[in-house]
Amino acid sequence: MATMPVEPQMAAADDDLADNVDAATRDMELQDPDAGASRFDRVINRTAEAFGVFLLALLTGLVFLNAFTRYAFSHSFIWGDELIISMIPWLAMAGLFLAVRRRNVIRIDFFVDQLPPRPRRFLRLAGELLAVAVFAYLAYVSIEYVRLFGGDQLTYLRWPTGIFSISFVIGPVLAALAYLITFWREAREGSARSSQPELAP
């Protein structure tokens, strides 16, 4: 009875693994990011998402318009480049807020997950509070930056730069509030679990 050589078998196994990874990645990307969230949370997340999509579409449109007119008519909207650069902080802050809200911020849980339940919960809550403190401090420092330079004007549009740099304050404030809400919810859920009577085996 003929058997398949080892190398084709390994190649077939690699193809199956790649197909499984692709399918899992596609399912994860297409699933509802707010599944299980309350109506209030969904409204907040979708509003921030719509704001980010609007900014991204506007940036893409400006880039395309500038490139098209530059090569088709040898004309460039120099203010378009200025506006694109100025709006990027708002787009970044919208993404930051959504990442915090949807728990998509990159973190390493491997070592924490090896701990018993109580130390693990304590470290996670401490991490939430640390994130609140860091973003609150970032917002505080950014207030001074906006106060000093927010009155400067853009070179071509002559708009105050504070319209865009205020995102350095609003973004961290919203991120700190999102982490604070997460801390409060996790602390409340932990207290509720600890107050439940243990069932006798």
Order of helices and strands: HHHHHHH
**How many E-type strands?**
0
Largest sheet: none
Number of helices: 7
How helix-rich are the residues, as a percent range? Answer: over 70%
Determine the strand fraction and express it as a percent band: under 5%
Number of domains: 1
**Quaternary organization:** single chain
* C-alpha termini separation: 55 Å
Summary, kept brief:
The protein is mainly α.
Describe this structure as you would to a colleague.
There is one protein chain. This protein has 201 residues and is mostly helical. It has one domain. Helices cover 77% and strands 0% of the residues. Helix 3 runs parallel beside helix 7. The longest helix is centred in the N-terminal third of the chain and has 35 residues, at 39-73.
